[in-house]
Each structure stands twice: as structure tokens, then as C-alpha cells.
Amino acid sequence: MTGASSLESNDIERFADGHIARVDSVDARIAPYDWAFARENVDEIAAHWAKISAGKPAMFNGRILLQHRAAITDGVFQARYFETDYAAFMTWRDAGHPGPALRNGFAMGALRARDGAFLCGRMSNHTANGGMVYFAAGTPDRSDVRDDGTVDLAGSVLRELAEETGLAASDVVVGEGWHTVFTPGRVAFMRPLTIDLPAEEARALMLSRMAGLAEQELDDIVILRSPADCDRHRMAVFMKPYLSHIFARE
Asked: Has keyword Hydrolase (predicted)?
């Protein structure tokens, strides 16, 4: 196992966009990194944030984690993260990911019902990605970092599921392993989850739980049974490659 602050190799630039890999586990840790983009573009970042957050009081410029090193060795995805502002990340993302290769490496709960249908959330219009359909997820932040410097992506999956849908860890079964989906500036870590209800009943339960949340990031739950269902929705770029991959194998 590599040390907490470095990797023997860094494949983050070699993982092609669209690539999907299955791994047994993820070893994610905090490691120092000097991000020149954030340091050299303070005024541009402030201006861009003011523009994209105008009229969206729910958008918050908190601290998040971005991935700057990555390698897959013997079924283990080894990743190193650093902390930065959400505003800097959004400016970098919207500018086309300039500079050295970095990725927003986040975990998602790929939730399926008993009958095999996938259950996704549709983001509310007051969020940064209003109208987009994807699994419960969030860019990792300081709350995901354990005392030993490891980043708890598995815990992030269940936390985001609860925050966005109201489902608790006791409502789902967590599967083994992860699928990693690479897209420009991102790598989505897909963790299989199953809820022991038919899709329609699961959707109704999730909607009822969401109605009781203090803050609602989602305005609907979408049921996906086939690639054709996916085509009817505006989905984040990492969703369709993953779903197409899974549907093609079944």
C-alpha cells in the first residue's frame, strides 16, 4: 500500500474520458497540492461566482475536495485529494478545466429497486444543476475526511442518499466494489445500492421522505428501466455511459 502523501505513479491524465473501470475498493486520502489556478485567478473566481450564484441563495461557497493524483493497482483505486473553494472549482470547470489534470472525484449511490429499475433524482431548479437527473451524490468535502486523513467515499454515498432522498442506511443494501466512470474533469465512483421494494413503491417512499426534508435538492424521483428511458431525460455526462454499460451486460 502506498503512503498517505504520495503515489508511486499518477495515471490521472491517462484515464481516457468515457473509460469505465470496475475496482474492488477505493483508497482516497488527503495530500498537499498547490493549485496555481485558484491562487492566480482570485478576481476572476469572485466575478464568476457572483454571476452563477445570483438568484440562487441555496448555492454556498464551501470547501470541497478535488482529486490531483490517481492510479489503479491490483483492483484498488488510489486517489489523492486537496481542499479548495467551491467557487474556484466551478470557475475552473466552466473554463474548460485549464492547467494540470485534476478531477472532481465524487461517490454516487447507484440505487436499484427490487425489480431492477434504477432510481435517480432530478435536481431542483434552485440548485446549480437544476433539471439534471442523476444518482444522489456530492463533491466530497472536509466532513468526509477521517482523523487519519483518509476520505470516506463509502460514507459519502449514504450521507448524500439520506440528505437528498431521506432514505437511511437501513433502507438499502450496499453492494460490493465500485464502477469508476471518467468524463472531462470528473470521475464518478458508482457504488451499487438496492432497496427491497418495487420501483414505484420505492419512488413513493422517497418522495414522501423528501417532503419532510428541511432542504430539498431534488424535485422528483425518476425510474429508469432501459436506455430508452435514459434518453428521455437530461442527464449528467457520467450517467448515460454507466447506465448503458450496466444495461448492456444484463
From this structure: yes
- pTM (predicted TM-score): 0.88
- Provide the residue count of the chain: 250
Which class would CATH give 20-248? alpha beta
pLDDT tens digits for range 37-65? 999 999 999 999 999 999 888 788 999 99
SS3 for 235? strand
C-beta separation of 198 from 113 below 8 A? yes
Q: Which residues contact 174 (CB under 8 A, 6 or more apart)?
A: 154, 157, 158, 191, 192, 193
Grid cell of 155 as nine digits: 460514507
The structural domains of the chain, with segments of one domain joined by +, span 20-248
| Residue 161 contacts residue 136 (beta carbons within 8 Å) | yes
Give the dihedral sign, CA 241/103/176/199.
Answer: negative
pLDDT digits 0-9 by tens, 190-247: 999 999 999 999 999 999 999 999 888 899 999 999 999 999 999 988 999 999 999 9
**Residues 103, 109: contact at Cβ < 8 Å?**
no
- For residue 69, the 8-state DSSP code is E
- Of 74, 107, 66, give the one whose Cα is nearest residue 8: 74
| Lookup: cell for 49 | 461566482
Distance separating alpha carbons of residues 91 and 85, to the nearest angstrom: 10
The span from the CA of 33 to the CA of 35, in Å, is 6
